[in-house]
Amino acid sequence: MKVMARRVCHERGGLKLELRRDFGQEAISALREVLSGGRHASSVIGDALSRNPKWSDRQRALFSNTVYDIIRYWRLLWSGLGREPSFDDRDLWHVLGAYQIKKGEEVERRPEYRGLSPDRVRKRLERARMNRAVRESIPDWLDELGETELGEEWDDILHSLNTYSDLAIRVNTLRTSRSELRKRLRASGHDVVSVD
How far apart, in whole angstroms, are the C-alpha atoms of residue 87 and residue 93? Predict the structure, then answer.
C-alpha cells in the first residue's frame, strides 16, 4: 500500500515566507553560489542547512523551497522587477521581495526592500504572465521548440514541469496500519489519499 501525502499549506501557495535578515542573507548567498558560481543547488542548500542547525524543520523546508522556487522562476521574477538580472545584495533582496509578491504575500517594510514598489511588481508580473516563456521562466528558443514539437500539449506539459509532485510513501503494514498512518499524517497537516 502507498499513501500519497502533501502538505496542505503547500497546496495553497506554500509556507509563508517570514524573512529574518539571517534567513534572507543565506538565501541570497545560496542564489549567488548557484546562479553565478555554478554550484549545484542541492549542495549549496545542504551547506546552508548545516550552517544553521537551530532552524526548525519548517524553516529548513521553507529555505529549500524558497531557493528552489526563486531559481525555478528566475526569469519571471526579474521581469516583475523590470530589470536585468544582477547578483548584488540589493537586487537579490528585491528578488526575494518579488518572490513574496508572486506568492500573494504582503511585503513588509524593511531597509533591504527600499526602492521596491509592490504595486509595480504586481502589475509587471501580471503582464509577464501573458508570455508563456516568461511565465514559466524558460528561454524563448525552448518555448518555440516545445510548441513546434508538441503543439497544443506544450502548455500543459510546460506548466506541469513547474508544479510540485505528490509525495508517495510506502507503508510497512507490519509496523503500522493504514488508518493509523493516515491519521498521523493528517494531524501533521497533510492531505492523504490511499493508493493500492
Answer: 10
Quote the CA–CA distance of 121 and 153 in Å, as a whole number: 30
Q: What is the CATH number of domain 16-133?
A: 1.10.940
Q: What angle do CA 160, 137, 62 make, to 5 degrees?
A: 75
Q: What is the pLDDT of residues 52-111, one digit of tens each?
A: 998 888 888 889 999 999 999 999 999 999 999 999 989 999 999 999 999 888 888 888
Q: C-alpha grid cell for residue 45?
A: 542548500
What residues does each domain of the chain span?
Answer: 16-133, 134-164
What letter would DSSP give residue 109? P
**Are 137 and 69 within 8 A, CB to CB?**
no
Identify whether the C-beta of residue 172 lies closer than 8 Å to the C-beta of residue 2. Answer: no
